[in-house]
TrEMBL record:
Name recorded for this polypeptide: THIF-type NAD/FAD binding fold domain-containing protein
Keywords: ATP-binding, Ligase, Membrane, Mitochondrion, Mitochondrion outer membrane, Nucleotide-binding, Transmembrane, Transmembrane helix
Gene3D superfamilies linked to this entry: NAD(P)-binding Rossmann-like Domain (3.40.50.720)
A Pfam family: ThiF
Biological classification of the source: Eukaryota, Fungi, Dikarya, Ascomycota, Pezizomycotina
The species this protein was found in: Cylindrodendrum hubeiense
A GO CC term attached to the entry: mitochondrial outer membrane
Amino acid sequence: MASFLSDTVSIPRFQLVATAVVSGAAVASLLLGYQALERNQRIDELKNSIPHDDVSIQRLDNFGGSLAPPPVDQEDARNQALARRAQSGDFDGELIEEQLARNRVFLSPEGFDVLRNSFVIIVGCGGVGSHCAAALARSGVSKLRLIDFDQVTLSSLNRHAVATLADVGTSKVQCLRRRLIAIAPWVKFDLQQEKLDGDVAERLLGPWDDEDGQAPDYIIDAIDNIDTKVGLLKYCHDNELPVISSMGAGCKSDPTRIIVGDIGTSTDDGLSRATRRRLKLLGITSGIPVVYSNEKTGEGKAELLPLDEEEFKKGAVGDLAAMPSFRVRILPVLGTMPAIFGLTVANHVILSITGYPHDYLPAKGRDRMYDGILAYVQSSEDKLARITDGGDTVGLKIPLTVGDVAFLAEELYNGRSVITGIPTKLVLIRWRRPEGSSMTVLGEGKDVQKCSTVRLGDLVCMTKEEASRHEKEVFKAGKPLKKVYDAATIERVKAKLKEAKKYEAIR
């Protein structure tokens, strides 16, 4: 082995290649180092150009944490002093009632009192979350917990509710508190400048830290990261915490298309679709209210993908991100749309907490359909096991849930037959007849367990009539698929089954 390496190294061509690789690495390192230096210089120049005679910009570390508390100017000092008085009870209650008089008249004194004593958690304090927080503070909510690890950037200013140039570089939660106590000094804020994930969810979404230990009356999801979003909604669902989720405002421009509906019925939005798919695979098919837009893309409208090279280069303007490389490009967002999403979320929370009637347009219920499809898969697998095994199939179980069925029928096959595109009387059935047994048997006697071998990547969506034909010709008669279906259908199904297998890992 040593001789082989020695001979290889002595080859002139190898030496040239090695020299080129080392040189390339050195040049790349120099370029990256220069770019990092230039980036830091641009950040310093930009921040120094922002007038801040009274307030120094608060810098954050690479993890979004505060390096030091921000200095306080005269106006901030007055606002904070007033807030301390108001929160300790040293504030004229009649003045508060006068400021909130229109809300009180609208919601009734009883509903208004409930709102005044409520505790709301907002996760994500960007465009959507900041407008939501501002609306809740102005409406009378007394306790707000704000959760966000990020800081205000220049690109935040086109959609943030209260941030100014002087706030660039400060954390979003501190920015919101600083501005909102000047409007509603009696509101108590609990600032949590960190990223919400499974390890801290119980603490961050728990009761208010006081002697009463008040549980949250509502939790607001204004997160734009899919993993964190799904984790939050799953936690709230499992722990029966009231939550509403805001879906994507990016690339949307029609405010008349914004809807409050159930997560199971949201459409025409990439973030909503991804969230809905992941939740269905986790067994959550409905029960979470969401704000989404059913506006469809069209010619001349902004789109997330594809992006040309010039658009990718624009990502460099995200120089003030809290974490290096956290954002790779600037998303197309019309500044008005996150505001409308946030205000819609706040509106729903206010109505829900106070018990005010809010009869939204009804959405089509699908749970009965999912139960029916699951029952059909059970029946189909039972028949198939008798064909492939020829034995007793009593007690046969299938390793699928209602969430799996909902995902396949709605998300993968878009509520249509893969054979004809018909959207009615849909069922799921295996595409191929298994070469061996379609059932596994574990144990014996009273401890026997019989389980179908079916997986997500085996099932296709058809109408009942198509499935009956498929069962008769493919399962019973044993015909090859190419004798039953045309080549285009087979290729279409093959692509869908391949996509289904990708989701097995996140079930």
